[in-house]
């Protein structure tokens, strides 16, 4: 039976991916740093800090997965500015610990390393949809750490570890932290609707264009990537993107339009990120050509599900 070790299982993407893996018939072992309250009772959980090389080796030796889906990371750009050492220790050395453990203890396992479209950085200034051959010019510690993790991964691939690297663009959906822009908008709208916030939504840069994907579509791409374990001669690197340029202002307008409330918009200078990129869109022809993958969920439906989620979450917030 196909047995996946899922790192970062307790995160935003991990929870969605777990459901899809189980539905597709995989046996799943979930690696988490702490036993979260939301964990399912019917899957195996492993306590694992990927910064601990010995723990990674012991976990891989015991579980001997056929596949590893590596999501665990410090994933938040502002956190990476505040704590670059934690970011590099987790994203680079943690990934190396895992790869070394795979090489030593589960050498037949196929790994999907989840990187980020942030690695392109300055290259986005070309103003076109970037493909996998575009230069990588990271503009923040998070992006730099992800690119370093990719380089580490490629070295292990050269030494015989089997796997691929995914570069997902902005994925959004129910369960995401309000540190991210669409979740922040949806949360504020839900707070306004419930009378817990004045009818003014605080926003950062609305001019930027982003490539938004529903987290469920991103997870379906990861499942497709796992199937490459049965093939040979596949590319090592895959963008996962919608290829649509969507202005943040239009996301805000759509969300506000889906609300029954009349809402004013106010610029909050503290929400402007230090290294903002005006246009970040990806070309994912490779995912389509090699794996026949394309996103299927419209942005409108994604935003509707986000609002539904935040309406129920703010009810329980203090
Ligand atoms: O802190 P926890 O227990 O919630 O676990 C987080 C996990 N993580 C770690 N796991 C093992 N050892 C560590 N030292 C460690 N540090 C963090 O990574 C959490 O469950 C997960 C990250 O979840 P989120 O921050 O919600 O990220 P998201 O959006 O699910 O992104 C998944 C992947 C990341 O590699 C991103 O960089 C990429 O997709 O875009």
TrEMBL record:
EC number: 4.2.1.47
Record keyword Ribonucleoprotein present: no
Highest taxon above the source species: Bacteria
MF (Gene Ontology): GDP-mannose 4,6-dehydratase activity
Name of this protein: GDP-mannose 4,6-dehydratase
Presence of the UniProt keyword Ion transport in the record: no
Annotated keywords: Lyase
InterPro entries named in the record: NAD(P)-bd_dom, NAD(P)-bd_dom_sf
Domain NAD(P)-binding residue range list: 5-304
């Amino acid at each position: 039976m196909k047995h996946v070790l899922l790192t970062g299982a307790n995160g935003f993407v991990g929870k969605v991916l777990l459901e899809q893996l189980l539905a597709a018939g995989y046996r799943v072992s979930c690696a988490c740093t702490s036993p979260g309250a939301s964990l399912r009772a019917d899957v195996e959980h492993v306590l694992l800090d990927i910064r601990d090389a010995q723990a990674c080796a012991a976990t891989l030796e015991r579980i001997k997965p056929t596949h590893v889906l590596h999501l665990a990371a410090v994933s938040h750009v502002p956190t990476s500015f505040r704590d670059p050492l934690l970011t590099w220790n987790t994203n680079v050395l943690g990934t190396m610990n895992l790869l070394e453990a795979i090489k030593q203890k589960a050498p037949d396992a196929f790994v999907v390393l989840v990187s980020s479209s942030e690695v392109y950085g300055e290259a986005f200034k070309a103003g076109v949809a970037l493909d996998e051959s575009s230069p990588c010019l990271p503009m923040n510690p998070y992006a730099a750490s992800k690119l370093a993790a990719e380089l580490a991964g490629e070295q292990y691939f050269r030494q015989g570890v089997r796997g691929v690297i995914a570069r997902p663009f902005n994925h959004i959906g129910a369960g995401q932290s309000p540190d991210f822009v669409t979740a922040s908008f949806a949360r504020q709208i839900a707070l306004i609707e419930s009378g817990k916030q004045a009818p003014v939504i605080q926003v950062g840069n609305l001019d930027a264009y982003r490539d938004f994907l529903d987290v469920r579509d991103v997870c379906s791409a990861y499942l497709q990537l796992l199937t490459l374990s049965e093939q040979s001669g596949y590319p090592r690197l895959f963008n996962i993107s919608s290829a649509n340029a969507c202005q943040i202002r239009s996301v805000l307008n759509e969300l506000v339009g889906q609300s029954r409330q009349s809402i004013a918009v106010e610029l909050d200078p503290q929400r402007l990120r230090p290294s903002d990129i005006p246009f970040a869109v990806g070309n994912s022809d490779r995912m389509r050509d090699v794996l026949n993958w394309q996103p299927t969920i419209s942005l409108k439906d994604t935003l509707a599900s986000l609002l539904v989620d935040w309406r129920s979450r703010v009810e329980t917030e203090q």
